[in-house]
Design goal:
mainly beta, 2 helices
Length: 236
């Protein structure tokens, strides 16, 4: 059975606030997977001197912690070891901001191949380069658990977008063999962004439109890290 983790405190509050402001959410048709009693996640905060990612005018600090992605175009000793590379970014962390719902346009589109997958696309609509850190935090309707990332998709460096450029994440919605549990159809999706440290609030969430018929998912729901290449995002 898939192991679930409690939604990080900061991100849960941010996603819940976004959902309340929207007011168009619908109830989940099936029961959400129960949280394991022992699962706890403590939200962390950006390192002193860094930028939390809120807004578009601040300057970014360096990425802190041993579990964070390294600066785009470089491979730090404490950054993730990846199976997928990414293109070198222009600019420095001092001139880049965090990508979030305030400076990007986000779309969610189910695809035919691979089966039961959806593609998230984030386009930088701001005037500054922005960083997509870690992986998207997804919340269908009012779900209270976090879809886990596909660790094999972790890039060598942060996915950085110049104005007008797009980044991607692939979402595996349900098991092709029907082995997933608690399957339900959702009509609302909230996409949360992480900050410079894992599980921190990266700024405003996004509410991409889902198809009118909704999107079916089950307990096997997983998501890739943010990647520069669409084909890479759909290869998991």
């Amino acid at each position: 059975m898939r192991k679930y983790h409690a939604l990080p405190v900061v991100l849960l509050a941010a996603l819940a606030l976004t959902a309340c402001q929207d007011g168009t959410g619908t109830k989940v048709e099936g029961a959400a997977p129960p949280e394991p009693a022992s699962a706890t996640v403590t939200a962390t905060h950006p390192a002193e001197g860094g930028n939390s990612g809120k807004g578009t005018n601040g300057t970014d600090g360096t990425i802190g912690g041993t579990a964070t992605n390294s600066t785009q175009g470089t491979s730090g000793g404490t950054g993730p070891q990846a199976t997928k590379g990414s293109k070198a970014a222009k600019g420095t962390t001092a001139t880049r901001v965090s990508c979030n719902g305030s400076n990007t346009a986000v779309t969610a589109r189910p695809v035919r191949r691979p089966l039961n997958h959806m593609l998230l696309t984030v386009k930088n609509t701001g005037s500054k380069m922005c960083d997509l850190t870690y992986y998207p935090v997804l919340r269908f309707d009012e779900m209270q658990w976090v879809p886990q990332p596909i660790e094999d998709s972790k890039p060598q460096a942060v996915t950085t977008l110049a104005p007008g450029e797009s980044g991607y994440a692939g979402v595996s919605l349900s098991a092709a063999d029907g082995s997933g549990e608690w399957g339900t159809t959702s009509h609302k999706l909230t996409v949360g962004f992480q900050g410079r440290t894992p599980n921190s609030d990266g700024g405003p969430s996004a509410l991409p439109t889902l198809p009118a018929k909704g999107v079916y998912y089950d307990s096997t729901l997983t998501v890739t890290y943010w990647l520069r290449d669409m084909d890479d995002a759909l290869s998991y």
